[in-house]
Every structure is written in structure tokens, then in C-alpha cells.
Amino acid sequence: MRIKNYVRPHTLEEAYRIISENERAVVLGGGSFLRLSFKEIDTVVDLQDVGLDFIEEKEDAVDIGSMVTLGELERNDVLKKLYRGYIPRFVGIIWSVQLRNIATVGGTIFPKWGFSDFITGLLALNVDVHLYKSGKMKLEDFLKTKIGKDILVKISIKKERRETSFQFLRNSLYDFSLLNLSLSCKKGKDFKLAVGARPGVAKPAKKTVEFLNSVDEPFKHLKRATGILLSEIEFGDDFRASGEYRKHLAGVLFKRALEEVLNYEG
Ligand SMILES: Cc1cc2nc3c(=O)[nH]c(=O)nc-3n(C[C@H](O)[C@H](O)[C@H](O)COP(=O)(O)OP(=O)(O)OC[C@H]3O[C@@H](n4cnc5c(N)ncnc54)[C@H](O)[C@@H]3O)c2cc1C
């Protein structure tokens, strides 16, 4: 990565003005992905002085600023308790300690990468994304919406009593997931389910959720639920795995996740 101009604004207004006035200006999170590019970047807008490095617990939600690193998410005491440590658990599988100490929440959500474990993990919870220009929207809607130049300011994670499960398979710890899946429910009802690294970006499985919510003992209907899941989600090929293999994996990961969320006793 070669940078022509480096700027470090002190307010979000200033940061947004710079990126909106200069077509070739980009926001800098931790720089861990940007630095892999061989392109010359005209202007980099570093957000580290804007005050987005916070984790704030409120009565009904936890707000996380976009400059918080994945490493901070792993070590934070509030998040270690929220959903019994679900977030630190799935964040902890992302590559290495060194990377997690650099990569930020903003740089991990805003680009909507297909391989993302972080986005899939969050989709099992009720999460709002706050953007400087486009405002607040549900994470699910953000993933479907074409967003132009904008800045991810923070995410807001609703505090609920949910049993959660994050499942994934990768060829080695230092590789991207071949497939990942997240599931949660409240005492066997009100399910949330998403599949990612398909290899497309994570997608909520709405029809499967509708079915799971309509039956009394979901595990007894595993076969039918799996059938719905495999027909509503598209799986594609890439150099890591074929769509057919991913489809098979989705059934396996779904079964494990359903067992985990239904067997939780607490
Ligand atoms: C070697 C390697 C392995 C990885 N493995 C995994 C993995 O296994 N699982 C996984 O889920 N992820 C993985 N990642 C992705 C990682 O978790 C981060 O998402 C990624 O590195 C970017 O983080 P960053 O904060 O450094 O972003 P940057 O590199 O700074 O930015 C990335 C992009 O996001 C934009 N951006 C940054 N912050 C904002 C903001 N606040 N608002 C708007 N746009 C913004 C930038 O302009 C840029 O386009 C991996 C990354 C690397 C480099």
C-alpha cells in the first residue's frame, strides 16, 4: 500500500467531509486489509482521533465504537458476560492475536466480506449498525443495502437472554472458514439463524427460522428444517470448496448448532 496523503481528523464531520469531497479518499480502520493492496491510495483518513474507541454498556444494549479492535472485544469484561461470552468466543477464532489487535469493528463490518466470521456471528443477535450519513439500520438490512461513501460509527448489540452457537469449518486455523453458521434462540423459540462464507456474505435463513418457530420440539423436526435451510441458502464454488461440499457442511453445522442451543441448561 502506498499512501499519498495521510489525514487525521478530530471529528466525524471533518472525516466525512474529506471522504465525500475526494472520490479517492478512503477511511482507515486498523489498516490490516488495506495494506495488502498494491494500489496507491490518494488520501487515507485515519479515524483514531475521532473518539470511536469505546465499549459502552447501556440498560438494553451494548454500544461498540467502530475503532474498537477485535482484540479488545475478546478481552472486554462486559462482553465476556454478555451472551455468556459468545462474542469473544467467535472473535477468538479469527486468524491471530496480532491481527485481532489491529483489525477494527468498522473495517470488519463495512466492507461486507463474504468470508467474514464476525458478521455471521453477529447475525445471531439483534444488532444495529450506525452510519454517519445513512443513519441507523439493522445489520441484516445493512448487508442488503448498497451504501455509498460513508463511515461506520458504531454498532449496538441488544441485551437479551439468548442461547447462542457459532459453528465453522476451516482447513487450518490460519485460513478463512469454508463455511460458518450462527444460531440463537430464547428457550427454543424466537430463533435467529445465518450462514456465511458460502462463499458469499452471510445471509439470514428466514424460512428455516419461520419453520423452527412454528414447531414445539424443533430438534424432532431437524430433517425438515435442514431441507428448508439447504434450499433457501445458495452455496457457491471457490478454490477452497465446492458449493456441493458447502451444502453438505451446512447440514452438519446446523445440527451441531441446534443441539447446542437447545441443550443449554441455565
Ligand atoms: C491475513 C488476514 C486474515 C484474516 N482472517 C479473517 C478470518 O479468518 N475471519 C474473519 O472474519 N476476518 C478475517 N480477516 C479480516 C479481519 O478480521 C478484518 O476485518 C480486516 O483485516 C480489516 O480490518 P481493519 O480494521 O484493519 O480494516 P482496514 O484494512 O483499515 O479497512 C478495510 C476496509 O474497511 C474500510 N473501513 C475501515 N473502517 C471503516 C469505518 N469505520 N467506516 C467505513 N469504512 C471503514 C476501509 O476503507 C477499507 O475499505 C483477516 C484479515 C487478514 C489481513
Short description:
This protein is α+β, with helices and mostly antiparallel strands. Helix content is 33%, strand content 25%. Strands 4-5-8-6-7 form a 5-stranded antiparallel beta sheet.
What does this structure look like?
The chain folds into three domains: 2-46, Uridine Diphospho-n-acetylenolpyruvylglucosamine Reductase, domain 2 (2-Layer Sandwich); 55-158, Uridine Diphospho-n-acetylenolpyruvylglucosamine Reductase, domain 3 (2-Layer Sandwich), CATH 3.30.465; 163-263, CO dehydrogenase flavoprotein, C-terminal domain (Enolase-like, domain 1). Helix content is 33%, strand content 25%. It is built from eleven helices and twelve strands. The chain has a five-stranded antiparallel beta sheet. A hairpin with a 3-residue loop joins strand 6 (127-131) and strand 7. The protein binds flavin-adenine dinucleotide (FAD).
The assigned structural class equals alpha+beta
Helical segment count: 11
Please provide the ordered H/E string of secondary-structure elements.
Answer: EHEEEEHHHHHHEEHEEEEEHHH
Q: Assess the beta-strand content as a share of residues.
A: 15-25%
User: Quick one: biggest sheet?
Assistant: 5 strands, antiparallel
The side-by-side strand order for the widest beta sheet comes to 4-5-8-6-7
Number of strands: 12
Shape, per Cα inertia axes: globular
- Tell me what the CATH architecture of the largest domain is: 2-Layer Sandwich
